[in-house]
Amino acid sequence: MDETTPVFAITAAAELAGMHPQTLRQYDRLGLVSPRRTAGRSRRYSMRDVVQLREVARLGSEGVSLEGIRRILELENHVSRLTDRVHELEAALADEMLNRPGRRVFAAGSEGEVVSLRAGTRVRRSNQVVVWRPLGK
Which domain holds residue 48? Predict the structure, then answer.
């Protein structure tokens, strides 16, 4: 069970959010906070929904219209999805950079020079030391 699990009936969610149940019904009709439905079509709110209801109340108390609140929530959700996607892409890129063929390995030559080697290539002399550092570290 996590913050998105729908567990609260409308009365409990309204109490947690400090609102009247009818207000929650109105917000659902307007698409501000849309809870999941049971098989019998009853509303079930998650903790995330309750937090969002509190945010709607806060924005409303600051004078933001319901349409403005709807737009703000829509944009915040969009930013959250984009942020998640960026993290996915960064992880995929880091994985690709570490695992791509042909990454470079460096060795110190017998006279102290830096010798570039392809991955999987062995050093020719036993007195050479291989130095390897993963990308990004």
Answer: 10-98
Q: How many domains does the chain have?
A: 1
Q: Is 33 exposed, middle or buried (0-12, 13-18, 19+ CB in 10 A)?
A: buried
Q: Which pLDDT score, from 0 to 100, does residue 96 have? A: 74
CA 55 to chain centroid, in Å, comes to 19
pLDDT at 126 exceeding the cut of 60: no
List pLDDT tens digits, range 47-58: 999 999 999 999
Query: pLDDT digit string (tens) for 68-94?
Result: 999 999 999 999 999 999 999 999 888
Pairing state between β 129-131 and 114-118: unpaired
Enter the DSSP assignment of 8: B
Length of the chain: 137
Q: What is the pTM of this model?
A: 0.62
* 106, amino acid identity: F
Residue 76 lies in a domain: yes
| Residue 87, H or E segment | helix 66-99
129: left (phi over 0), alpha (psi -120 to 50) or beta: beta
Adjacent-strand bridge partners of 117: 105
